Amino acid sequence: MAKREGADPKTNRLKARVPRGFVDRGAGELAAAERMLAEIRAAYELYGFEAVETPLVEYTDALGKFLPDQDRPNEGVFSFQDEDEQWLSLRYDLTAPLARYVSENFEALAKPYRSYRVGWVFRNEKPGPGRFRQFMQFDADTVGSASVAADAEMCMMAADTLDRLGLAGQYVVKVNNRKVLDGVMEAIGLAGDEEAARRLVVLRAIDKLDKVGVDGVRDLLGAGRMDPSGDYTKGAGLAPEQAERVIAFSEAKRATLEETFGALEAVVAGSARGAEGVAELREIAMLVAAGGYDTRVEIDPSVVRGLEYYTGPVFEAELTFPVTNEDGVPVRFGSIGGGGRYDGLVGRFRSEPVPATGFSIGVSRLLSALRLVGSPIVASAQPQAPVVVMVMDRERIADYQRLVAQLREAGIRAEMYLGSAGMKAQMKYADRRKSPCVVIQGSDERERGEVQIKDLIEGAKAAAEIETNAEWKAARPAQVSVPEATMVDAVREILARHR
Questions:
Q1: Was 137 annotated as part of a binding site?
Q2: How many CB atoms lie within 10 A of CB 144?
């Protein structure tokens, strides 16, 4: 017999396994995520954003930087062909589908168009610790406004969202501007399409400032750098004077806002685009200060992640509390979301330019952060386990169905045991379900019109203090008999005791 792929080599039986880069999620995580998403949704709606949903699948050419080659799309997306041989892909992010949606419905939408979206995105990339091929994002975008006030509003909304989630005082929203970096590139002679590859190397070098320090960045901007493990990274090949100007840009943040702006103006001297970027940062700083957000939103030239995608202001929400990395060293938790202005994306579908700005939260990463800080949103999100109605006499199963129906009609989550095991196994089942209590009715109880209700939580506590079987039988811990007519009230009392 031929061996099946993924089969156990000894039995040739199909092996159950989740694909690499994907994960299953249990009831507790789902409940916590739903509570967190509800708070994010409420924050976005407070700012006037409305919900829209786009498909998980888009035509591949609509995704922007991932376009099909002669035979198949480039790496990075999961793609397939339809019956018309058109390339389709699972969405890589939520922004490109929004650009397609706005363009397709442009005349019908009120502009500026303010929307939010939440959903799964997919990356056909090598998975690793904390890196998955499927993850959830929660985005908000304003399309149709070129005003810097729209960018400032995104930063303020990000701050309000994190405050709402119980993270006040444990984050900062950092703001930079792509135009400032463009000014630096012009100043060092790296403008133009022919220098695009070297600009990307420079960008990646700046992004590693926290990890490798100034000297490490200087090496990466020059010939290259050998890390302690012996791995060599080729550098951007900048001359020393060019590298120093880039470093001056990345370290332009000073003790005061005015000093920071002064340093940025010096580093982009001679570039009109760079000066425009600094002016936009000044306006954002003025707007967030007017709104009372100046301690939560700050200008920081070190923010460069994703700058090749954006056209103006960029922002990143970073959690500041410490966690321990794989080497046991305390580090900041880091980024849980970001965004910026992307004026070119919607315009790919239309003859006129369409300005846009947005902010995206990484849902799984933010949920991990809430667990670390003990957020009540996560702690109180465990779903209520059901009350289990035990089946003692299978000939009278309709009687047990009637009991469970009474509980459900009263709004109590309940289930009737549907297996074939006896009482002992049914009790084990209820324990594994983490049921707060069980309802028991044998023939004697039925004749008396009663049920027994056993509080499993109190019973477990009492059992820990009982040493002999005789004591157990005498105590019958946390178990009471009540008339059927008062069963619902008795169950409610137990649930309220443990809620």
A1: yes
A2: 17
Q: What DSSP line would sit under 154-212, residue for residue?
A: HHHHHHHHHHHTT-TTSEEEEEEEHHHHHHHHHHTT--SGGGHHHHHHHHHHHHTHHHH
* The amino acid at 436: P
| Whether residue 307 sits in one domain with residue 370 | yes
4 is in an annotated binding site: no
Q: What domain range is 469 assigned to?
A: 387-498
pTM of the model: 0.83
The residue among 158, 142, 168 whose CA lies nearest residue 48 is: 142
Confirm or deny that 446 is annotated as ligand binding: no
295 annotated to bind ligand? no
Q: Is the domain of 163 the same as that of 298?
A: yes
Q: Are residues 112 and 200 in the same domain?
A: yes
**Are residues 251 and 124 part of one domain?**
yes
- Contact assessment for residue 337 and residue 362, using Cβ atoms and an 8 Å cutoff: yes
* Residue type for position 243: A
Ligand-binding site membership of 141 (annotated):
yes
Asked which of 31-45, 331-345, 381-395, 466-480 is least confident by mean pLDDT, the reply is: 466-480
Q: H or E stretch including 281?
A: helix 272-290
CATH code, domain with 456: 3.40.50.800
Q: Which three-class secondary structure string do you get for 119-138?
A: EEEECECCCECCECCEEEEE
Read off the pLDDT of residues 227-286 as tens digits, 9 standing for 90 and up. Answer: 888 889 999 999 999 999 999 998 899 999 999 999 999 999 989 999 999 999 999 999
